[in-house]
C-alpha cells in the first residue's frame, strides 16, 4: 500500500475527532474534516472542510475524492450509515478505513449480550461485507483503547470523583481494566496509518495501563494523600437491572441512549465483570510496546487530581 498522507475524518468536531486532528497534523498528515449539513463548521485554517450527509452516497464520494484514508470518529449512533460510508470510500479510491471504535472490545464473542454495542457491531458487519465485495480494494482497522481515564476524570465520568474524593468500587475491586489517555487514540491512529498493512482487516489493541480499582486507590493515596472514600457497588444482579432499564427505555422510545442510566450500567458491566467475560482487561492482546507503566500513571493521576 502506498504511503498514506491524506486523511478524511467524520466527526472531527467531537471530543475524539478534535484529538485525532491534532495528532494527525502534528505528524504531517493533510486533514479533511467532513461535517454534516447544519453542523457547526470546523474552524481550523490548517484543515480542509467539506460537507456531506453520512447517508448521501454521491456526496460522500465527492468528499472522499483524493483521500487515502477515512477515520470514523463519530457518535456510535451514526454507525448505521456504515454501508453507505464504505461504498463511498471504495468508489472514491480510499485505501484504508478506521472504524468508530476507540473504546471497549466490540470483537469480544460475548459482547452482544450487553446490547449497547449493537450499532458498532452492525457497522462492522456492513463494512466487512463491503470489503469482501470490493475484492480487497479497501482495508480497515478497529482501534480498541478501553476507557479514556484522563478525560473521564476531568469530566466526572470515571470511577474516581476528584471533587468529592470518592472512588467507586464495583465488586471486589481486584478486577483489572484496560484504560488509556484520550490522546493515545491519536497516537494509535498515527501508528496504524503509518503501517496499515500491519493492522490490516483486524482489531488492534492499545492501552496506557491495565489496573484494578484497588490499585488505583492505593496510587491516589500515594500521590494526593488520605481522605478518599470508597463507594462499594455490588455486581450481583447488576447486569439484569441494567437490561431491565434498557427494555424500559426501548418501550418509552428513548432516543438518547448514550446518556441513559441503562447505557452507563451496561458499559460498566463490560469493564468490571469479575471473570473478564467481556475483555474489560484486554492487556493480553495489546500491541507490543503499548503500555506506559506505573510511573507514568502516577504522574498522570497526580496532575489530574491535585
From TrEMBL:
Pfam family, one: NmrA
GO molecular function: oxidoreductase activity
Domain NmrA-like stretches: 6-225
InterPro entries assigned to the protein according to its UniProt record, in alphabetical order: NAD(P)-bd_dom_sf, NmrA-like, NmrA/Isoflavone_reductase-like
Record bears the keyword Oxidoreductase: yes
Superkingdom, natural source: Eukaryota
Protein's name according to its UniProt entry: NmrA-like domain-containing protein
Organism the protein comes from: Xylaria grammica
Amino acid at each position: 500500500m502506498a504511503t498514506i498522507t491524506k486523511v478524511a475524518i467524520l466527526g472531527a468536531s467531537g471530543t475524539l475527532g478534535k484529538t485525532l486532528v491534532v495528532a494527525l497534523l502534528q505528524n504531517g498528515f493533510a486533514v479533511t474534516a467532513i461535517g454534516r449539513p447544519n453542523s457547526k463548521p470546523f474552524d481550523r485554517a490548517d484543515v480542509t472542510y467539506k460537507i456531506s450527509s453520512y447517508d448521501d452516497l454521491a456526496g460522500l464520494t465527492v468528499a472522499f475524492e483524493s483521500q487515502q484514508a477515512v477515520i470514523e470518529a463519530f457518535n456510535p449512533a451514526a454507525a448505521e450509515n456504515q454501508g453507505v460510508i464504505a461504498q463511498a470510500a471504495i468508489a472514491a479510491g480510499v485505501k484504508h478505513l478506521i472504524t468508530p471504535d476507540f473504546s471497549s472490545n466490540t470483537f469480544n464473542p460475548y459482547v452482544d449480550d450487553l446490547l449497547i454495542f449493537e450499532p458498532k457491531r452492525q457497522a462492522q458487519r456492513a463494512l466487512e461485507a463491503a470489503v469482501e465485495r470490493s475484492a480487497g480494494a479497501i482495508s480497515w482497522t478497529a482501534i480498541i483503547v478501553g476507557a479514556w481515564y484522563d478525560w473521564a476524570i476531568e469530566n466526572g465520568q470515571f470511577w474516581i470523583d476528584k471533587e468529592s474524593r470518592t472512588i467507586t468500587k464495583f465488586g471486589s475491586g481486584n478486577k483489572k481494566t484496560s484504560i488509556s489517555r484520550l490522546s493515545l487514540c491519536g497516537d494509535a491512529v498515527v501508528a496504524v496509518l503509518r503501517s496499515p498493512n500491519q493492522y490490516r482487516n483486524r482489531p488492534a489493541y492499545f492501552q496506557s495501563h491495565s489496573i484494578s480499582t484497588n490499585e488505583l486507590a492505593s496510587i491516589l493515596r500515594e500521590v494526593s494523600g488520605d481522605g478518599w472514600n470508597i463507594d462499594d457497588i455490588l455486581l450481583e444482579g447488576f447486569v439484569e437491572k441494567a437490561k431491565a432499564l434498557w427494555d424500559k427505555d426501548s418501550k418509552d422510545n428513548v432516543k438518547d441512549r448514550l446518556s441513559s442510566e441503562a447505557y452507563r450500567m451496561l458499559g460498566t458491566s463490560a469493564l468490571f465483570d469479575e471473570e473478564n467475560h467481556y475483555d474489560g482487561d484486554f492487556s493480553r492482546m495489546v500491541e507490543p510496546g503499548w503500555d506506559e507503566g506505573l510511573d507514568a500513571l502516577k504522574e498522570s493521576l497526580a496532575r489530574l487530581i491535585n
